[in-house]
Amino acid sequence: MSSKEKEEKLLKKERILVSACLLGVNCKYNGGNNYSNEIDEFLKDYEVIPICPEIMGGLPTPRIASERVDDKVLTKEGKDVTEQFVKGANECLFLAKKYDVKKALLKLRSPSCGYEQIYDGTFSHTIINGNGITAELLKQNGIEILTIK
Ligand code: SF4
Q1: How do 117-119 and 127-129 pair as beta strands?
Q2: d(CA 38, CA 41)
Q3: Which of 26, 81, 112 should be mutated for ligand 1, with most atoms under 8 A from CB?
Q4: Could you check whether the bond before residue 62 is cis, i.e. omega within 30 degrees of 0?
Q5: Which of 11, 73, 113, 140 gets the most CB atoms within 10 Å of its CB?
Q6: CA 47, CA 124: separation in Å to the nearest integer?
Q7: Residue from 66, 62, 90 nearest 76 by CA
Q8: What phi, psi does 58 have (nearest 5°)?
Q9: Are 113 and 101 spatial neighbours (Cβ–Cβ below 8 Å)?
Q10: Cα 36 to averaged position of ligand 1 atoms, centre (Å)
């Protein structure tokens, strides 16, 4: 490797997958986002790859809110959207592998992106221990999951 190549490598920022709603993309189920200045500040040292597993799985925005119920994901109206959630998770893993990404900053408590805490499937704002479908798949594949409280 030439010294120029070494220098370029050192200057290269670490890549990170980030829940797109945290960046200000209006991809939340209700058409809004979860932007925060704190997250923008945290990400300035990273090369950001935005992801929204629910959109990448084929769901529209806005969409009916969903929650995990064991291994399934159901909308508030009882429709099974597990297939779309699993597809979205696999697309995110595809990007992580393609671009050799080792970290993901994900939105708290989402049935896709939530890490260590999610809603319990009763749509009553009750929080339980557990992961969203995408967070779980990324974690299983050795990706470090970060959240900002
Ligand atoms: Fe945000 Fe993830 Fe929900 Fe998309 S799936 S809106 S990125 S929390």
Answers
A1: antiparallel
A2: 5
A3: 112
A4: yes
A5: 113
A6: 37
A7: 66
A8: 105, 5
A9: no
A10: 14
Q: What is the pLDDT along the chain (149 residues), one digit of tens a residue?
A: 677 776 666 678 999 999 999 999 999 999 999 999 999 999 999 999 999 999 999 999 999 999 999 999 999 999 999 999 999 999 999 999 999 999 999 999 999 999 999 999 999 999 999 999 999 999 999 999 999 87
Q: Is 84 in the pocket of ligand 1 (CB under 6 A)?
A: no
**What one-letter code names the amino acid at 80?**
D
SS (H, E, C) the chain: CCHHHHHHHHHCCEEEEEEHHHHCCCCCCCCCCCCCHHHHHHHHHEEEEEECHHHHCCCCCCCCCEEEECCEEEECCCCECHHHHHHHHHHHHHHHHHCCCCEEECCCECCCCCCCEEECCCCCCCEEECCCHHHHHHHHCCCEEECCC
